[in-house]
Amino acid sequence: MKRTISIIIVLAILSSCGSAKSVIFKDFNYQLSSSFYKNQFTGVLVIDAASKDTVYNLNSHKYFIPASNTKIFTLFTALKTLPQRIPALKYIKLNDTLYFEGTGDPSFLHPYLKDSTAINFLKKHNNIVYSLGNFEDEKYGPGWAWDDYQWYYSPEKSDLPIHGNVVMTIGSNEIEISPAYFKDSVLQLISNRNRNEFSNTFFYNALSKDTVETPFITSNLTTKSILENLLNKKVSLTNKTPLAIKQTLYGMPSDSLYKRMMHESDNFIAEQLLLVAGSVFKDTLNSKKIRDYILKNELYDLEQEPRWVDGSGLSRYNLFTPKNMVSVLDRLFTMMPKEKLFKIFPAGGLNGTLKNKFIDENEPYIYAKSGSLSNNYCLSGYLVTKSGKTLIFSFMFNHFRESNSEVRNRLEQMLQKLRDTY
Fold first, then answer.
1. CA distance 322 to 302
2. Span 138-157, mean pLDDT?
3. Last residue within a domain, chosen from 235, 266, 282
């Protein structure tokens, strides 16, 4: 009798899931076959996180420009390679001299993270030498737009970033500039640019009360000068680090960086995290080497090999499939408790880039990373249905001419159907 009841229950569950999938299949097919999607490229994959059953699939094997969905791969890389606290510096102490090198740590006096671990450590030593040579990357990623040099979302990459590699100008009765090293480099005048393209000369409207973040041009000499200004002591440079075992100074919890990267879609943190991972992996700051390692080892079994060229998704050279995204999201789902994972992702209607989107009147049902470039919008992550099930999904829309808001509104209807039906 008990066995009969169990069989009936299982059959009822299977019937319910089959019915729900049928409803979703018909609804999605109807929506995605409308004229709205006719002249664009659309890819969708939705799976059940527990059973791994496919709920809906459309062009999930095809490549799309992912925009900031790329950060999902960067998050996976960081979780696989970095310790619980971010490596802030590597150093060697010989007699009365401290030799140190950057790890790419983006939190060093970052305007929002404000980690002071490294600077406080350096203040304790009188003779300090900044070791160069471990940065084997480019300041910009492949395919980044050259004219983004003046905008907050496109700072240069470097081995020892300071203050997020941006100059923050805060309008008030007396304009505040940080780092203070650039105080004399900010000209108070009206200009259609925030900075000279080829020099660290910045422009700010004296009548403005806005806070403006402008990337500065990085170099070893600039870093040295900023450090000397902060420490009020001389900093020497060397290309020859002594032959000795390097020690590591650890800074703030790594989770804090992951959360800001995903919630605010912070491009700078994403790029620097790959460099930090490279520092841990091979003592070399090179994002390509760590990306290649992850693809060949941790993600060797992806059905379609991605074209992965940066950490942030700023580049249109990136190519990923919805299956790529769902596969990595599925691995993340098994790597850590759901509650902890969901806190790293923006929650619909609650925080981050989804604070005003995909709102539920009771509680968040979407935990996902959005990605947008002109004419492209993607959303990949997790959905909690009203029945308590978790779905893993990736929606990728490329080359549309309609507004992003209309694409999101139509996507929200499909997400609500998943929430209410499955």
1. 11
2. 96
3. 282
